[in-house]
Amino acid sequence: MHHARLAWSPELLRYDFGPGHPMAPVRLDLTMRLIRAFGLPDLPGLDVVGAEEASGAMLRTVHDAAYIEAVRRASTALEPDPARGLGTDDDPIFPGMHDAAARQVGGSVALAEAIWRGEVAHGVNVAGGMHHAQRGAASGFCVYNDAAIAIQRFLDLGAERVAYVDLDAHHGDGVEAIFWDDPRVLTVSVHQDGRTLFPGTGFPGDVGGPGAAEGTAVNVPLPPGTDGPRWLRAVDAVVPAVVREHRPDVIVSQHGCDAHGNDPLSHLNVDVDAQRTAQQWVHALAHELSQGRWLALGGGGYAVVDVVPLAWASLTAEAAHAPLAGGMPLPADWRAIALEISEIEPAQTLGSAVPVAWRPWADGWDPEDPVDRAVQATRRAVFPFLGLDPSY
């Protein structure tokens, strides 16, 4: 059996909000070129399949019918609907918008189905992770919420519990809102503090709907400037404990790589090495807890040469059980193409060969450190609902 399946179609490059918009298709184009330059599609552990458009019925498992119709109208008649987030600066309308967004969903859902059937252990959709889309509105470059629809598909196929781990610099607000009252779905988001970044949500006290769902939303808002070692410390201090307690049948993760210091849209400073380390941790949790069932999605990431391709080629290789070595040279032919396409001089290597030195929470926390204070606020707010001790 292939360890992993990557969903990809060149048609996914049609998700294009136009010139000057940060969510530029070149980020996916350069990612797929790097995945090929590293020879990942030739690995025995990786199977590459297309991505078809999700049906209206599939979209309606999460989105309001009236909203889907509004997206269709925006796509064909080019009618904006600002009340539904369509035709805003973040989400300009474009011809074929519905088809392109439905294809993102179709890629994620087909992977979810293959994982649940046992055809593959891991699925990767670098074009997915559209975590801001709401039931009835586009938001933050996201039209349809493929992450939420894939989670709903796992539930509809019989999963009793799903854990969603969101490592994007921005709060995974759409997925959280959609499953706010559903105790079957744990949503964990590690992000830049909403007081300083879009979408302005995701605080420690936001723990899920009252009653059975309390404790199934977990938010770790980090101060601007948080670096890789401190980010890993925050991830480690919260994510494994709450995911283990949830005992998920499957893990869905969102690997937006916009927490990087070069990213133009956020103010964190998490290098590719730290992001790659977190990918390894999520992968290991899937094998520990979910019989390996793991759906890994892309997301944000707007440093289109030095960060996005490196992070998501690494994610794909990790899922294929053929991880790329830190510090390895980037292929010369890819660097030449990346320079030609972007006019940005690419990095020479895939991060550093030296493992990130981070300090585990168990070593004790520092009340003077703003990252530690943020982590402790989350642990105090949510751990008691899960029967976990926030203090140790």
From TrEMBL:
It comes from the Bacteria. InterPro entries: AcuC, HDACs, His_deacetylse_dom, His_deacetylse_dom_sf, Ureohydrolase_dom_sf. Residues 21-317 form the Histone deacetylase domain. Keywords: Acetoin catabolism. Transmembrane segments: none annotated. The keyword Cell inner membrane does not apply. Pathway: Ketone degradation; acetoin degradation. Pfam families: Hist_deacetyl. SUPFAM superfamilies: Arginase/deacetylase. Belongs to the histone deacetylase family. This is Acetoin utilization protein AcuC.
